[in-house]
Design a protein that fits this description.
Helix content of chain A: under 10%
Structural class of chain A: mainly beta
Distance between the termini of chain A: 41 Å
Radius of gyration of chain B: 14 Å
Shape of chain A: globular
Oligomer: heterodimer
Structural class of chain B: mainly beta
Distance between the termini of chain B: 37 Å
Largest interface: A-B, 24 and 25 residues
Number of helices of chain A: 0
Order of helices and strands of chain B: EEEEEEEEEEE
Number of strands of chain B: 11
Number of helices of chain B: 0
């Protein structure tokens, strides 16, 4: 069965600090996708990134970066120079392509609070 | 890409009543799913909406409580039946547009925020 663990329930930082959100996953499939979503207080789910299991190249998008390490089954998310607008709940999710096609398993989420 | 709309966006309902949530996609999609997010919790998959056949439910969810329809490739409904306060949640529709598993793009609707009093 697939499983996603976000060990950090809540993180609080001061604006401009860097912060890393951890995500560890379990799957028996060799082909899968990993996702990060942001859920601001307004409630909508905002897609941030999708990464397939064959692409271990790290990705940077502005202040956001993702570190995918298959060897440790981790897909961590770093926000550089955090801003108050980054305050939200962040979810990591896993989708197995074949065994449970299309069904995403979500972690419990990490609530990030960025203080001015 | 796929643009998803849900109706209603929010509702307040009395216990014992039922609410039907609609999910409309702007293009034909291969797979459609319904998720639930209880207050302060993560997202949990309710069921896969199958076009032209009965939905496939996850453990802990049953058709009598959450009947689902999917009459075509762009539309689905989820009904929350005989509601109780424990059904207060955000209900999200999700789609997987393509058949090509190498380009795996999953999209979520804006959600329906349900409060049961």
């Amino acid at each position: 069965a697939q499983k996603v663990t976000q060990a950090q329930t809540e993180i609080s930082v001061v604006e401009k600090e860097d912060v890393t959100l951890d995500c560890v996953y379990e799957t028996r499939d060799t082909t899968y996708y990993l996702f990060w979503y942001k859920q601001p207080p307004s409630g909508e789910l905002v897609f941030l990134i999708r990464r397939n299991s064959f692409d271990e190249q790290n990705e940077i998008s502005g202040r956001y970066s993702w570190n995918f390490q298959k060897s440790t089954s981790s897909f961590n998310f770093t926000i550089t120079a955090s801003q108050v607008v980054d305050s939200a709940v962040y979810f990591c999710a896993l989708s197995e392509v074949f065994t449970n096609a299309g069904k995403s398993t979500f972690g419990d989420g990490t609530t990030l609070t960025v203080k001015p | 890409s796929a643009v998803i709309s849900q109706k209603p966006s929010r509702d307040i309902c009395q216990r014992g009543t039922s609410l039907t949530i609609q999910c409309q996609v702007d293009s034909q999609v291969t797979m459609m799913f319904w998720y639930r997010q209880q207050p302060g919790q993560s997202l949990t998959l309710i069921a896969t909406a199958n076009q032209g056949s009965e939905a496939t439910y996850e453990s802990g969810f049953v058709i009598d409580k959450f009947p689902i329809s999917r009459p075509n490739l762009t539309f689905s409904t989820l009904t929350v039946s005989n509601m109780s306060p424990e059904d207060s949640s955000i209900y999200l529709c999700s789609v997987l547009p393509g058949r090509d598993r190498s380009s795996y793009e999953q999209y979520f609707g804006p959600g329906t925020r349900l409060t049961v009093t």
